[in-house]
Design a protein that fits this description.
Elements (H helix, E strand, L loop, with lengths): L1 H7 L1 H16 L5 H4 L7 H12 L3 H8 L3 E8 L11 E5 L8 H11 L6 E5 L11 H10 L7 E4 L7 H8 L3 E2 L3 E7 L2 E7 L11 H5 L8 E4 L6 H6 L4 E4 L8 E2 L3 E2 L13 E5 L2 E5 L17 E8 L4
Parallel strand pairs: 1-14, 2-3, 3-4, 4-5, 7-8, 8-9, 9-13
Antiparallel strand pairs: 2-14, 6-7, 10-11, 12-13
């Protein structure tokens, strides 16, 4: 743990470990932590019963396995010319241990997608307690078919044990830190923060530290919640997830719940805050229950371009 403390910050690691223990024991210090939807054991059972009663349970499960490939064009004024047309495959909210049929569908969706790199913005585990081993076993099937290199951050469903599991598979996990893509002598910086939703162990200043003001930098965050702080620290693009786009929505994709205190405008798809652009994935997996309505699961190919002329 000493090496991890040096990477993400000693106090952040202590806080995360303490809160993971709380999740495992269901003993929360704050009422708002207990009231997170994923912390209510009855939520999944209730939704399952309602969907079954109205004859929609099987359809919701089928919808959850019909994973689409979306595309998003991004124009970044500070993007080095060498990275013109660079493509990033973005997966979020994978929740891999929900079952083999879903993992099969996700592997089939991403296999053969030719991109320059891949980014994962957290939530590899379906539940919030218990062993991370089933999620890691699913990652062993998924990671080999992803474009390389792969960069990742953890989400609010993820135990710290997933850092070792991901990095054993060759994934670079960014814990309030950054790395660099090199191309033709130019650099594109990719930073990542720990979960800002439940664990609140993110440190954007630490992740940005040492970058020159003119550098082009992308921030990976599980949730879009700290978007204003990210923009104030000079990031050019923020990629996130967590909201699932609502997962179970009204016709027209209107979410019933996003489990995110940020404005609805940053809870799904492309958005902007000042000079910083952002994108919040609707996710490729499901939380609480494996069902989706009016919000298809998706992986996204981001295509990076320089400033519009």
């Amino acid at each position: 743990m000493t090496a991890l403390a040096a990477r993400m910050g000693e106090e952040a690691l202590k806080q995360r470990l303490a809160m993971e223990k709380e999740q495992d024991s269901h003993h929360y210090r704050h009422v708002e932590d207990f009231l997170h939807p994923e912390h209510l054991p009855s939520a999944g059972r209730m939704i399952h019963r309602v969907l079954t009663a109205v004859g929609l349970r099987a359809r919701g499960r089928r919808n959850a396995r019909r994973i689409r490939v979306g595309h998003n064009r991004v124009h970044l004024g500070r993007l080095p010319e060498a990275f013109e047309g660079c493509t990033l495959l973005h997966l979020s909210d994978l929740h891999l241990d929900v079952g083999r049929p879903y993992v099969d569908a996700l592997v089939d969706t991403v296999r053969g997608l030719a991109c320059d790199a891949c980014v994962l913005t957290g939530d590899y585990r379906f539940g919030i307690q218990g062993s991370c081993a089933p999620a890691i076993a699913a990652l062993e099937r998924l990671v080999p078919v992803l474009p390389q290199p792969v960069f990742a951050v953890l989400g609010n469903h993820d135990g710290i044990a997933l850092v070792e599991g991901l990095e054993h598979l060759g994934v670079r996990v960014l814990m309030n830190e950054r790395t660099t893509l090199q191309r033709g002598g130019a650099q594109l910086h990719i930073a990542g923060i720990d979960d800002a939703h439940y664990f609140r162990t993110h440190d954007i200043a630490r992740a940005r530290d040492g970058l020159p003001p003119e550098a082009c930098a992308i921030l990976l965050s599980h949730t879009p919640e700290p978007y204003r702080v990210a923009a104030a620290h000079g990031f050019d693009l923020m990629l996130s997830g967590h909201t699932h786009g609502g997962q179970i929505c009204l016709p027209g994709g209107i979410p019933l719940l996003t489990d995110c205190p940020a404005p609805r405008g940053v809870a799904r798809g492309a958005w902007r805050c000042g000079h910083m652009q952002g994108f919040t994935s609707v996710g490729c997996g499901c939380s609480i229950i494996d069902a989706r309505f009016h919000c298809p699961p998706e992986v996204t190919v981001h295509v990076l371009h320089g400033a519009m002329t």
